[in-house]
């Protein structure tokens, strides 16, 4: 490719899905410029994931986006129930009752000072949120958009990464030089393949549901809710279980648009609109008007993690390093958490205060989380996908009624955990990381329960700092974009030596004094040093006698 190499931007990001866009936005908050490449010219308009979990919502809040995201998706008053039917217009087997967005925010408004969920889970399809994120990155002056561009060459050396890309529409090209590059380009990642990195794990499941080659179909059905399900039974997700069918229907707008998941009858044949409509009619128990808006093939049951999360100056995030089955809604959310972990480390390297071991900590910290989360999603898929359904489940007599009661009780008792995975959502820990100063034993991991802990490595326990429950009231709202030293107690301590050591290393460090006894109880020590991603790097009852040594460790500069 002819032409001069452009060298004015620090980070190149390949892949403009939600993970790539959030990474670019985090870098911008750190004052770091990036170029964001994406083959499509805009965010792709097809339904995908539907869950933005509590941790992802905290990241959106950090970026000032959570209120905007909460305006997307289902109507404010629509319950987010998960309902199980023999057929949509027939017997309801069971229901997992979950509040509407209005209900969730009412819970936040009435929450205790030490409540750990300032940003509860939100149900909005990824296509809505991607469009919102695209509009946000388009307004950010530190992000250069290259949507409609394909990266076709990437070469790194000890000083940087050279990237060649071409415009998909007309073939016009450019070559740029970056300090670092990140592949956020999905399961077929060009960047991962260019590095010669492979996945390990499980690529599918052989079971009737959430297994094998599947189809996600975008539908419009104006009569399903008012005429068959009934508005009094509306929710967010509807599952059909009968001897002949297992399928899932997700409400996108709370009215007439849905995402329909079903196992492909022949994985080698493209989905047929007429066959999809027939399957819906069978699930509904009769014909109804259906408009097919699009299909997206996918493979259910995957639990894959890359062998490595990058190489030298090229890193990988999101589906480029981990692929999920959709049960639990962990895929995109794990990728967003990757981006939060990586962004501050890249900013530190670009800013000159990151040590030689800092970027290596990304894989050390995030790979165990990817393996944990992919396994949890696969386990949920096995629980639902291989569920036995009696042949007489639809009978009107006593035998059918008993079967429905038994299956409904099982669904409500067992599958509710898929939608109550707070331990997975908030419980990521980086124990054993070389940039975390260990102090104490962490709580045992429970996928369903989150236990706040001041032990370094975990998410900083949350605290409301005043009587309000809005922007500015959360501890997280007041943390710096570098490190933040929390000081618990009524009198501001002498922290001059630590601040001086931070200035000498050009490390951004802010100090926050919290005289509240409840805050001290949450963290278990008089001091806690928090990273930009809200994980605890260190804690203690006295400041270290050699503050430079501590700062060297938590920034990857220690030997």
Describe the structure concisely for a colleague.
The protein is an alpha+beta fold. It has 15 helices and 25 strands.
3D structure, described in words:
The protein has helices at 18-29, 54-62, 66-70, 101-109, 126-139, 190-194, 224-229, 273-284, 331-351, 360-385, 398-414, 422-426, 496-504, 517-523, 547-554, and strands at residues 11-14, 34-38, 51-52, 82-85, 92-96, 122-123, 143-147, 149-157, 160-167, 173-178, 180-183, 199-202, 212-220, 237-242, 245-251, 257-263, 291-300, 303-306, 310-311, 314-316, 322-324, 483-488, 509-514, 527-530, 536-540. The chain is α+β, with helices and mostly antiparallel strands and 559 residues long. Among the domains are: 11-75 and 120-202 and 303-377, FAD/NAD(P)-binding domain, CATH 3.50.50; 429-554, Glutaredoxin (3-Layer(aba) Sandwich), CATH 3.40.30.120. It has a 7-stranded mixed beta sheet with strand order 5-4-14-15-16-13-17. Strands 7-2-1-11-20-19 form a 6-stranded mixed beta sheet. The radius of gyration is 25 Å and the shape is globular. It starts with 10 loop residues before the first strand and ends in a 5-residue tail after the last helix.
CATH superfamily of the domain at 11-75 and 120-202 and 303-377: FAD/NAD(P)-binding domain
Which structural category fits the helices and strands? alpha+beta
Give the strand order, joined by hyphens, for the main sheet.
5-4-14-15-16-13-17
Q: Helix segment count?
A: 15
Q: Which consecutive residue ranges, at least 5 long each, have pLDDT under 50? A: none
Report the portion of residues in β strands: 15-25%
CATH topology of the domain at 11-75 and 120-202 and 303-377: FAD/NAD(P)-binding domain
According to DSSP, the number of beta strands is: 25
Kindly report how far apart the N and C termini lie: 41 Å
Overall CATH class of the domain at 11-75 and 120-202 and 303-377: Alpha Beta
Apparent shape: globular
Rg result: 25 Å
Q: Which CATH architecture of the domain at 11-75 and 120-202 and 303-377 is right? A: 3-Layer(bba) Sandwich
Largest sheet: number of strands, sense, barrel closure: 7 strands, mixed
């Amino acid at each position: 490719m002819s032409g001069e190499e452009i060298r004015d931007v620090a980070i190149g990001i390949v892949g403009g899905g939600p993970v790539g866009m959030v990474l670019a936005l985090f870098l911008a908050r750190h004052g770091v410029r990036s170029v964001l490449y994406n083959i499509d010219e805009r965010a792709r308009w097809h339904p995908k994931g539907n869950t933005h979990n509590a941790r992802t919502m905290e990241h959106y809040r950090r970026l000032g986006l959570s209120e905007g995201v909460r305006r997307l998706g289902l109507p404010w008053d629509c319950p987010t129930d998960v309902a199980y039917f023999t057929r949509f217009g027939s017997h309801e087997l069971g229901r997992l009752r979950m509040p509407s967005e209005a209900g969730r925010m009412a819970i936040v408004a009435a929450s205790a000072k030490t409540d750990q969920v300032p940003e509860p889970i939100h149900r909005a399809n990824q296509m809505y949120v991607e469009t919102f994120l695209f509009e946000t990155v388009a307004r950010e002056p530190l992000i250069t958009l290259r949507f409609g561009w394909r990266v076709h060459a990437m070469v790194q050396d000890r000083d940087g990464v050279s990237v060649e890309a071409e415009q998909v529409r007309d073939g016009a090209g450019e070559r740029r030089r970056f300090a670092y590059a990140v592949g956020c380009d999905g399961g077929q990642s060009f960047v991962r393949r260019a590095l010669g990195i492979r996945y390990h794990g499980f690529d599918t499941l052989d079971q009737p549901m959430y297994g094998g080659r599947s189809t996600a179909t975008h539908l419009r059905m104006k009569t399903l809710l008012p005429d068959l399900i009934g508005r009094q039974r509306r929710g967010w997700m509807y599952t059909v279980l009968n001897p002949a069918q297992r399928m899932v229907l997700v409400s996108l707008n709370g009215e007439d648009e849905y995402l329909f998941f079903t196992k492909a009858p022949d994985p080698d044949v493209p989905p047929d609109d007429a066959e999809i409509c027939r399957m819906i009619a069978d699930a509904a128990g009769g014909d109804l008007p259906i408009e097919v808006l699009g299909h997206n093939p996918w493979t259910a049951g995957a639990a894959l993690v890359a062998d490595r999360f990058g190489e030298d100056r090229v890193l990988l995030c999101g589906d480029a390093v981990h692929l999920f089955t959709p049960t639990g809604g962990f895929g995109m959310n794990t990728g967003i958490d990757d981006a939060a972990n990586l962004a501050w480390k890249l900013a530190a390297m670009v800013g000159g205060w990151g040590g030689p071991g800092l970027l290596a900590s990304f894989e050390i910290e995030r790979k165990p989380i990817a393996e944990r989360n992919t396994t949890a999603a696969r386990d949920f898929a096995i629980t639902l996908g291989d569920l036995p359904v009696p042949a007489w489940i639809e009978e009107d007599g006593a035998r059918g009624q008993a079967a429905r009661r038994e299956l409904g009780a099982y669904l409500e008792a067992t599958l509710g955990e898929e939608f109550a995975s707070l331990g997975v959502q908030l419980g990521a820990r980086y124990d054993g990381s070389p940039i975390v100063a260990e102090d104490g034993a962490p709580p045992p991991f429970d996928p369903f329960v989150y236990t706040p802990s001041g032990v370094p490595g975990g998410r900083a326990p949350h605290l409301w700092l005043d009587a309000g429950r809005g922007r500015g009231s959360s501890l997280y709202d007041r943390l710096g974009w570098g490190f933040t030293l929390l000081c618990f107690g009524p009198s501001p301590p002498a922290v001059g030596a630590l601040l001086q050591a931070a200035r000498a290393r050009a490390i951004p460090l802010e100090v926050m004094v919290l005289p509240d006894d409840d805050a001290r109880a949450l963290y278990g020590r008089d001091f806690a040093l928090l990273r930009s991603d809200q994980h605890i790097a260190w804690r203690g009852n006295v400041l270290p006698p050699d503050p430079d040594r501590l700062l060297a460790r938590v920034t990857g500069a220690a030997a």
